[in-house]
Amino acid sequence: MLITDAQRRARLARRHHLATAAPDVETATAGVIGLHSSDPASVYLAATARVAGFTNGQLEDALYERRSLVRMLGMRRTMFVVDRDTAAVMDAACTQALAPGERRRLTGLIERQGLAADGAAWLREVEERTLAALVELGEGTATQLTPLVPELQLKLKMGEGKKWGADVGMSTRVLFMLATEGRIVRARPLGTWISSQYRWAPTATWIGPLPELDPAAARVALLRRWLYAFGPGTLRDITWWTGWTQRDAKTALAQVEAIEVTLSDGGTGYLLPDDTATVRAPRPWVALLPGLDPTVMGWKDREWYLGAHGTELFDRNGNAGPTVWSDGRVVGGWAQHPDGNVVVGFLESVPTRVDTAVQRAARDLTARLDGTLVTPRFRTPLERQLVT
Asked: What is the C-alpha to C-alpha distance for residues 6 and 275, in angstroms, rounded to an integer?
């Protein structure tokens, strides 16, 4: 069975709520499984591109009042905003596997640097007191926690003997360890919607305890979500997006009874067995997506929607910058000028109707930002060029 690039673009357009807007932030988030949150502004801008009449208050209500969405560590050690059900699946399928290695490394540092002879016992005791302090506070920052748990003020030397060596606060490592194990989550930011400094809260009191899921079953559940949202995709796409080994990915593919399909480039992709019907192409559409948007970061093999534009739109570490889309393809990028205006740069020739629609979208986004300056956390060549 052949799945053409045109069909992949039709699926992307409809299921990622880019051609037809989602009614709310929860629907938009589920459509792409989760919104990348390494750059806090990206979450809001990704929702802006997908939700009809979106306002920041809608996302803040979902995150901090109703808590139907939560910000957690997930695939590839990356922060995501996901719904509660996906949070449990993501945690069991991806995040939990990181915890043993993180604990060994941190325990080793504690012992080698002379903070405790038994690093494991010391760490467990500090973690429990930190968690108890958070329960007492409800939510809090590292600064608020250190008077209650003085050990969090200690420093660890990282990268000794290397050019990048630096001192890292114990609070940073302990809080990351607790987050990796799903025991705490990032709560409200200290500043505005573009702030990357968060308060922490116990998971059990913030959204309720995460159900204990079998990791293998969770991988199957996560793969079902991915294949519906991003399929067809290659094995390389799946292992890159999830961070799984090929063995785990192949096992999950077998358990969902995924079917092999042929892609336009002759490669092999996978679909859910009940998802082979042709998806009707939507009307022409354009979108301005932010850096690290889940759509542009959804696959490792990107030529079918990115073309040859990768070097201009990604940094050297593989982080995507702001992109301009037309009918399921990336045709350029955008940036916000220091005067507040959103400016666009095309990387290929586009029809007049696309140019007109993109310029309109840029004006709408300028109005939406209303003077708030948003600089992507990961700068890319085209984005830098557009703001000079």
From this structure: 16
